[in-house]
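Researcher: We plan to redesign the surface later, but first we want a full-length starting point. Tokens attached.
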């Protein structure tokens, strides 16, 4: 097993490495689906975790991104990225494998404390590995084929993650033995083994020697983004978005399982619906961001995301009913669609605003801002949820016809529903911060919605022989294109101002 850099990377080596990277992503996604996300929250709840523990578990991976700063120095010093990435990720997977022992821990040892400690170790080691891997792939992969390569890698990673999550939920729900904690032990063991296979494929990827190191200090490079007024406004927006989104999202699984009473299998199915919607609409969002702007995509996708959280509160009013689950599937479908646009546009606008040759410092500033803001949000939300555990806010209508007094409860907010509403309110401030970011001409939200519908219609036409035939026989498509072009009036955006 060779972990040192290769002196020469041939075209054959590159093709072999790309195939290995696709397999690595698939096995790594299987590891994440069997250990993290919905499964990890379900395991924590089974151990008796409260809202603060859930918030802490959600915050750790984001806060651990700060480890990338010393990791950058480690990579620059050692200059063997494959060795760092393989050793760090393999150590993280050993920690995942060790989680299989937690259901059997007894005595005075608190398994929740061990779970939090293991989660921090896994996240920190994963952050070191990701730092080395990002630098490695940035130099290895040719620029002219990035789209096709990452599309294939993302497809297999998403497909395997969905299958793994569904299987994990069904295993826990239909575990034939007395203790369901044993089912989680099986899942963590399988996740660790899948992680080791992922590490093996990572060793098969060639590593070219690193470029000559820069003599600028890391602190000096990180000052550059803060001196750029427009990029500073973008950092304010990223902080606001990460606080608003991570204030409620980590508690959605808890809300579905504890408040609405759905089993883990149903919750994992909802997650898969969201991921499939995300993957299927990513291409449409990409076309829109290229044709219009990333800021225009965000101005539509972000309100849709937060509106779904508000609608979640009313999906079970006054209590869970026959239409609650279909509504939840619809909301997860819409949230997955919106999340695809938000993730794509946030990444693109950061790359677009970063000057050529200074990408490392600018992207590091985005990562640090997002991780610190996003890590703080679930900690505060978890503490608040603990305090609001018995709180209730009701809107009641009373009326009298004669002597008896009648009343009707219009809606009632309890516990985690307060977090969803607060998250949506914070989303309004995030949209305000977005308005201060400059990115080309201003485009109305109406144009974005129309263009998204048009792209969806075009995709259906490509998939449907009937749609394609109608498009060839009739000229409505060209008339619609012309009408859309005439109605898309672009107005220059006023220059943003600093400050909140």
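Model: Full-length starting sequence:
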């Amino acid at each position: 097993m060779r972990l040192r850099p290769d002196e020469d990377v041939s075209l054959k080596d590159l093709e072999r490495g790309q195939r290995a990277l696709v397999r690595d992503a698939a096995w790594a996604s299987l590891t994440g689906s069997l250990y993290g996300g919905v499964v990890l929250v379900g395991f924590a709840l089974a151990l008796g975790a409260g809202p603060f523990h859930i918030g802490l578990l959600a915050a750790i991976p984001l806060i651990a991104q700060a480890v990338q700063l010393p990791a950058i120095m480690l990579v620059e010093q050692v200059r063997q990225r494959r060795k760092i990435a393989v050793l760090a990720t393999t150590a993280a997977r050993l920690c995942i494998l060790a989680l299989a022992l937690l259901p059997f821990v007894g005595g005075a040892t608190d398994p929740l404390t061990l779970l939090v400690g293991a989660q921090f170790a896994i996240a920190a080691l994963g952050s070191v590995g990701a730092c080395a891997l990002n630098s490695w792939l940035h130099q290895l992969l040719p620029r002219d084929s990035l789209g096709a390569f990452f599309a294939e890698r993302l497809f297999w990673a998403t497909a395997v993650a969905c299958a793994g999550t569904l299987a994990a939920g069904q295993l826990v729900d239909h575990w034939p033995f007395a203790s369901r904690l044993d089912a989680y032990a099986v899942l963590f063991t399988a996740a660790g083994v899948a992680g080791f296979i992922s590490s093996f494929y990572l060793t098969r990827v060639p590593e070219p020697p690193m470029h000559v190191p820069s003599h600028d200090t890391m602190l000096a490079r990180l000052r550059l983004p803060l001196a750029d007024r427009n990029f500073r406004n973008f950092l304010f927006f990223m902080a606001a978005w990460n606080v608003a989104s991570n204030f409620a999202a980590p508690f959605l699984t808890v809300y579905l399982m504890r408040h609405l009473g759905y089993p883990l299998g149903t919750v994992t199915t909802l997650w898969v619906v969201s991921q499939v919607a995300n993957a299927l609409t990513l291409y449409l969002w990409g076309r829109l961001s290229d044709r219009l702007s990333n800021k225009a995509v965000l101005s539509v996708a972000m309100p849709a995301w937060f509106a779904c959280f508000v609608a979640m509160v009313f999906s079970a009013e006054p209590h869970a009913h026959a239409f609650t689950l279909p509504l939840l599937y619809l909301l997860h479908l819409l949230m997955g669609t919106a999340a695809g646009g938000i993730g794509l546009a946030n990444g693109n606008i950061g790359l677009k605003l970063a000057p050529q040759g200074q990408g490392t410092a600018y992207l590091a500033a985005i990562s640090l801002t997002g991780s610190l803001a996003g890590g703080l949000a679930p900690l505060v939300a978890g503490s608040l949820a603990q305090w609001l555990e018995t709180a209730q806010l009701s809107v009641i209508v009373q009326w009298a016809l004669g002597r008896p007094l009648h009343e009707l409860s219009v809606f009632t907010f309890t516990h985690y529903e307060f977090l969803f509403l607060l998250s949506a309110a914070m989303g309004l401030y995030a949209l305000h911060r977005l308005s201060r970011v400059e990115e080309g001409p201003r485009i109305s939200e109406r144009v974005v919605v129309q263009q998204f519908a048009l792209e969806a219609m075009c995709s259906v036409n490509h998939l449907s022989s009937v749609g394609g035939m109608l498009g060839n026989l009739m000229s409505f498509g060209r008339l619609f294109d012309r009408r859309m072009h005439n109605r898309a009036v672009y107005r220059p955006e006023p220059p943003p101002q600093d400050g909140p």
